[in-house]
């Protein structure tokens, strides 16, 4: 009898790719989609769609009944808004899902977190031994830290076979959220280098992330572990933007300010953001943009290579070529 997996967030970018790959592997796939959610792709793939919300315990129990695998991709994303709104989805809805599967015939529970859980500072080869901060400057990363702790608590106390994956900046075909906004800024000439064009990015192509999910679902020693995930290449902001702009014939960003002045502005923005966060307010530059534009974000994936056998199948250039081809085809 084939395995049945429950994919939360399957109407989204990463979840949709996971649903497609799961069906290609012969898995029966089920998802929980809110009423009115676009399930056209899932319907074509033959995914069983249960209508409901992750905050509805009865709907979650029905969707999770008898599944062997859970790929938990659903989350409230963003860097604005009250932390309570993020906590309701990213923590409390996760608790509802964990309660629904604990004690059941589950082989693996893959919890997709984010490299954003690390402190908002420069990173050069940071690995999973790095302690996570108790307080973050935005609701998303704050609640992603809390969700990791909750998932691992259920693994220790109830034996739920949890594995936590921390992907970086995910790009690829069918991204209708992050990449479109970036392309709009590039097309309008509003994107430029502030912290420097050689700052490092933590990119991961969606196809590499999907491969890592299946490796984590099968690796016998992965339960209870946390893994960083990227493309495993040196990708600077210059390389990233030149790939996008060259492929789509958009004006590339440039360093508008002298580097000494840009450096001063970076320090002032960081100080202002931390001061605002202590007072419960939002800074001038949203935290996600601050990290993407100004910080070195280089993380080690040696643990995933060693314990999961993770070897990124797609290079950055290959992944970006497929992303650009999809963007061209879909306007």
Explain what you see.
By secondary structure, the chain is of the alpha/beta class. It has a domain at 4-175 and 202-231 and 298-315: Rossmann fold (3-Layer(aba) Sandwich). Helix content is 45%, strand content 15%. It has twelve helices and 13 strands. The strands form four sheets. It has a seven-stranded parallel sheet, sandwiched between helices. Strand 2, helix 2 (40-45) and strand 3 (48-51) form a beta-alpha-beta unit. Helix 1 (13-24) crosses helix 7 (206-218) and helix 4 runs parallel beside helix 5. It is globular and about 60 Å long. It starts with a strand and ends with a helix. The mean pLDDT is 90.
Radius of gyration from the alpha-carbon trace, in angstroms: 20 Å
Beta fraction: 15-25%
Ends: how far apart? 42 Å
- CATH fold descriptor of the domain at 4-175 and 202-231 and 298-315: Rossmann fold
Counting helices, strands and paired strands, the structural category is alpha/beta
What overall geometry do the principal axes of the alpha carbons give? globular
Features:
Rossmann fold, two-stranded parallel sheet, 331 residues
Quick overview:
The protein is an alpha/beta fold and 331 residues long.
């Amino acid at each position: 009898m084939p395995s049945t997996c429950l994919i939360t967030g399957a109407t989204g970018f990463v979840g949709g790719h996971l649903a497609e790959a799961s069906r290609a592997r012969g898995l029966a796939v089920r998802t929980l989609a809110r009423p009115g959610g676009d399930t056209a792709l899932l319907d074509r793939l033959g995914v069983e769609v249960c209508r409901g919300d992750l905050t509805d315990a009865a709907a979650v129990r029905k969707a999770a009944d008898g599944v062997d695998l859970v790929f938990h991709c659903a989350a409230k994303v963003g860097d604005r808004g009250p932390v309570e709104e993020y906590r309701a989805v990213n923590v409390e809805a996760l608790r509802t899902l964990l309660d629904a599967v604990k004690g059941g015939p589950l082989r693996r529970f893959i919890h997709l977190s984010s490299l954003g859980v690390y402190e908002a500072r420069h990173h050069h080869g940071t690995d999973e031994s790095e302690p996570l901060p108790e307080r973050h400057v935005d609701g998303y990363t704050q609640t992603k830290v809390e969700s990791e702790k909750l998932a691992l608590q259920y693994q220790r106390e109830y034996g739920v076979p949890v594995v936590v994956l921390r992907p970086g900046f995910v790009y690829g075909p069918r991204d209708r959220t992050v990449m479109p906004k970036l392309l709009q800024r590039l097309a309008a000439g509003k994107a430029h280098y502030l912290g420097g064009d050689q700052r490092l990015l933590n990119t991961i192509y969606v196809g590499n992330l999907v491969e890592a999910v299946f490796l984590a679902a099968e690796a016998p020693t992965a339960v209870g572990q946390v893994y960083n995930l990227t493309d495993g290449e040196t990708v600077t902001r210059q390389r990233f933007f030149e790939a996008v702009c060259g492929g789509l014939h958009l004006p590339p960003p440039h360093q508008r300010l002298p580097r000494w002045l840009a450096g001063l502005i970076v320090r002032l923005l960081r100080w202002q953001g931390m001061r605002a966060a202590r007072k419960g307010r939002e800074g001038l530059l949203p935290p996600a943009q601050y990290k993407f534009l100004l910080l070195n974000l280089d993380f080690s994936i040696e643990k995933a290579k060693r314990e999961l056998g993770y070897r990124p199948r797609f290079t950055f250039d290959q992944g970006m070529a497929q992303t650009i081809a999809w963007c061209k085809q879909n306007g």
